[in-house]
Design goal:
Length: about 325
């Protein structure tokens, strides 16, 4: 559902999985749907109703703009389709609650499509932390910002489309911190710089976790930032450069002093289309008959939405369609 840029990347990922066939593209625009079908060699195309009434379709990938995530995912679920829902899960926690309830009542699979969650690098970082490679996590520092390319400007900058740095870019480092700590923050402090259209173009968040770990996140769609995440523990640090899809992890360890005793670099193999890993997860979950992913459980997606609600409200950023 949705025939934009992100849907094309997903189409490429589906081609790589022998368990999947891209059968149908649905769009509000017949011109966009037909063009997508022609360019991506999709056998069927039409409007949303055409797609959702196609009995051969098992799973719907929702690739609309943020403001339509809840509406379109709800339509798909009510038509009995499993749903992979592009991030952010919804615009707010209330919308997330409704989707989760519908999926549970209908026995359908539902997952937020944060593709980075399933990358080999994130998987390796989780394994290193679980092994105690750097001791107890105390602090995470993430910077993730860039000048948005022209083709994404309308989506990121328009408040009518739920634009802004937090929902579009901030979701990645926030999800990263929650994933690595294994908890949802109990407190947050945030600040932002507003654009001339009234959305956050630069945002910073301080997150306080139940375990005592803290995190600092900075993100922007209108500023180049070093693309980097550092996890500091009591025995060392893990560094992931190229945060949004990197494959090299640096492991630094010490004995409780200021002297780094060991440095190791782990280079992992990544598919050039990072969406292939989340496709694998959906297929695996459906094969096993489980209603949600253990890598990104629905409660975590919902709780992160609530956290971002608090962040936006602390800015004073409430979209007109939410009022």
């Amino acid at each position: 559902m949705g025939a934009g840029i992100i849907a094309r990347k997903m189409a490429g990922a589906l081609e790589r999985n022998p368990r999947c066939s891209l059968l149908h593209i649905g769009s509000k625009s017949m011109e966009r749907a037909s063009r997508f079908a022609r360019e991506m060699q999709v056998p069927r195309w039409g409007n949303y109703g055409d797609l959702l009434n196609d009995e051969e379709v098992d799973v719907v990938y929702v690739a609309t703009t943020h403001n339509f995530h809840h509406e379109t995912a709800k339509l798909a679920l009510n038509h009995g389709k499993h749903v992979l829902l592009e991030k952010p899960f919804t615009v707010n926690a209330g919308e997330a609650d409704e989707l989760i309830e519908i999926a549970a009542n209908k026995g359908l699979f539902l997952m937020e499509a944060i593709w980075t969650r399933f990358l080999p690098s994130w998987k390796k970082l989780r394994a290193l932390l679980e092994s105690g490679a750097i001791g107890e996590v105390r602090y995470i520092d993430v910077t993730f910002g860039k000048f948005v390319p022209p083709q994404f400007e309308a989506r990121l900058k328009d408040p009518k489309l739920a634009g802004g740095a937090t929902l579009d870019l901030g979701i990645y480092p926030i999800s990263f911190c929650c994933d690595m700590v294994g908890e949802i923050p109990v407190k947050e402090k945030s600040l932002c710089r507003f654009s001339d259209l009234g959305v956050d173009e630069l945002s910073c968040y301080q997150l306080d976790f139940p375990s005592g770990a803290v995190a600092q996140v900075s993100t922007s769609y209108n500023l180049w930032m070093e693309d980097r995440a550092v996890i500091y523990g009591t025995k060392g640090a893990l560094i992931l450069n190229d945060f949004g899809g990197g494959n090299v992890i640096q492991v630094l360890t010490h004995n409780g002093s200021n002297t780094v005793e060991n440095r190791e670099e782990i280079v992992l193999s990544h598919d050039e289309n990072g969406f292939v890993y989340e496709v694998d997860e959906v297929v695996g979950c459906l094969d096993q008959g489980v209603p949600e992913s253990s890598v990104i459980p629905l409660k975590e997606s919902r709780d992160i939405m609530e956290l971002m609600d608090h962040i936006r409200h602390s800015f004073g950023l409430v979209y007109e369609f939410e009022k």
